[in-house]
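Weekly modeling sync, notes
Attendees: AB, CL, MP (scribe)

Item 1: holo prediction request
CL wants a bound-state model with magnesium ion before deciding which constructs to order. AB pointed out that an apo prediction alone won't tell us much about the pocket. Agreed to run with the ligand included and paste results into these notes for async review.

Input as submitted:
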Amino acid sequence: MATVYKSTGSWYIVQDEAGKIFNARIKGKFKIDSITSTNPIAVGDTVLADLENELENTLTITDIGERKNYITRSSPHNRNQHHIIASNLDQSLLFATLKDPKTSLGFIDRFLITSEAYHVPSVIVFNKSDLYRQKEQDRFLAVKEIYENIGYKVMSMSIEKNEGVNEVKSLLKDKTTLLSGHSGVGKSSFINMVFPELSLRTQDVSGWSGKGLHTTTFAEMFNLSFGGRIIDTPGIRELGLVDITKQELSHYFPEMRALINECQFNNCMHINEPGCAVKTAVNEGTIHTDRYVSYLSILDSIEKKPY
Ligand SMILES: Nc1nc2c(ncn2[C@@H]2O[C@H](COP(=O)(O)OP(=O)(O)OP(=O)(O)O)[C@@H](O)[C@H]2O)c(=O)[nH]1
Ligand SMILES: [Mg+2]
Ligand SMILES: [Zn+2]
């Protein structure tokens, strides 16, 4: 059994149980039934492999272990196809920023829905707090309240000023953690700061144009010296939702999920049905309007998907 640490297209970098590193590839026909993804094997997968060439340290992958879970995004080339970002995760840290670049609540909500759907617990980490002025400071507190009220942990950090970094680091021990978020939010900078021995490529401050230039191009997993693993990923520009029906969308909003049985109709979509407990909660202020607006807008985007 070996674990996939990086995929660069046709070759995979894998580590066996003894910690030895190999280049591995799939040979011939190799198809995993039940899911249609653009990548058959992803970072975090466990694989069975045969030695292909002893001198060159290469393996041939013959089978893939069952995935505990995985996170996908829709393929940039085809919205109805998945790209598996990583698998077998214990948690994901969503890196967000309020400035340079700005992460929208809509993006955060889409990410949280994906994580809920695939059963991966998420923590939201706002980086670049050194750039906050009063306006952003107020915004941060407001956003923190929205997400903490519905059960997500929200943290703030500045890699630049080394503030809050250790608190985030302390979440990593003995877990496999996915780092995710837009390009330029500081995912690779975080790994570099906390684990300088890995020295990843990041964009330097003067070179970062704010145009969403991607610095990390392939997802890659690293072993942590104190136990655990961390996965750096390329920034996501937009997050398409795959495989979620209109009917089940509200199940992935924890504050709506809690009320679903109280709606008059059991197929209530919480739009304008009578006796809707979700709408009542929105009107009473116990469900935040921004989250409800996000819900409606995502519902609408699912409707537009051509099937
Ligand atoms: N002011 C400020 N800048 C930061 C902070 N953290 C990272 N940066 C800068 O943000 C830019 C982008 O950082 P990266 O670590 O490359 O971002 P990334 O999320 O890995 O981006 P991709 O690999 O493209 O997805 C760099 O110029 C960093 O120096 C911070 O806390 N404060
Ligand atoms: Mg990066
Ligand atoms: Zn309802």
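Recorded for review: The longest strand covers residues 46-53.
Action items: CL to compare against the apo run; MP to circulate these notes.
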